Amino acid sequence: MKSVLLCFVFSVATLHAELAIDTNFPGGSAKVEMLDQTTRTVSITPAPHKDLGWDCWWNFKLTGIESGKPVTLVVTGMSFAIADRATISLDGRTWRHSAPGKVEKGKVTYSLTFEQDHAWIAWGPPFQITDAEALIAKAVQHGGKAFEFCKSNGGRSVPAVRFDPTTPGKHRGLWVHARQHAWESGSSWVCSGFVNWLCSDDAKTLRETTRIIIVPIMDVDNVEIGAGGKDQVPHDHNRDWMDKPLYAAVRTAQAMITEMNAANEFDLFIDLHNPAPRDLKPFFFVSPASIMNATQNASLKRWVETAQGFLGKHPLGLETKTRESGSSYHPLWKQISKNWVTDHCQDHVVAVTLETAWNTPNSTQSGYQTYGAELGKAITAYLSVKR
User: Fold this and answer.
1) Is the pLDDT of residue 14 over 50?
2) If exposure means fewest CB atoms within 10 Å of the residue's CB, which of 95, 161, 294, 368 is most exposed?
């Protein structure tokens, strides 16, 4: 009788494993509003980070899942960046979309089912410093040189990689960075796709003839603590491009770009971002026509047309019309990175922000990476034409 009773108690305990949330890891972010063990409902909001930008990033590990039985996830407190689909992982490395949730004002409800007792669930596919380091390690195997871009304001190392051309004479110059806004994780995955392509045989000529600098994460501090970063106090990284920047990453970028430009080895600046929820096709933000001359406009036009030939054929696509980041866009428009580059570099230099849509079925870890590969092909085609 005693053994039967123990088996019964064990069975009940197994059937009612308690759901629990863990955010104690880099990029973790969730404030638990409710854990209902009876209805298997979890309700969270993004963890608040005072003065560190929009509360729109969430990322946690869920344990106590009953295999094959649905868990209801409710995400509230979202005035911006409500994701139609959650991003889920069974191993914390490979990410895919959930089925679409029910979107309402300020919240979204997902029904999730897993065949194991734990899973990672996030707003989008996380990309942390360790991901950047692994990406750079691969680039090093194909001729890249890893270097510490700078120490962040929070004392973290900002990883970066450069490719120095091997052919004699003057060279073309390319700058690519991502995550000036920490919550926009898809931008780092686009960067990852570009770097992976850059390591391929197809990119051999670009590697040999072009000076290339790549920074997968600019705002490492907010990325690592799971803060949004966008519109942090007094301003974010992409409003910091002024004479005396607040952030070490911006100061370093300005100094290196100035050096490349002075050496006449700078041609293309690409700042990778993710846009608003209903921007369902990627597009370019460009500098306002009012601050650009005929040569700058012609170079920009050629770049956009070249990019359209590659990115426009990807499932994510590319808007044919560009958008300007001028005085009507933001009060600090002159301090936006591409506008600083346009204003401080030679006339042939093209500077753009690429906003890759994040709220579509193709806005996945793999979708972003293949988009980054197409970006690499577009860059190669553009830089293959002499100035």
Assistant:
1) no
2) 294
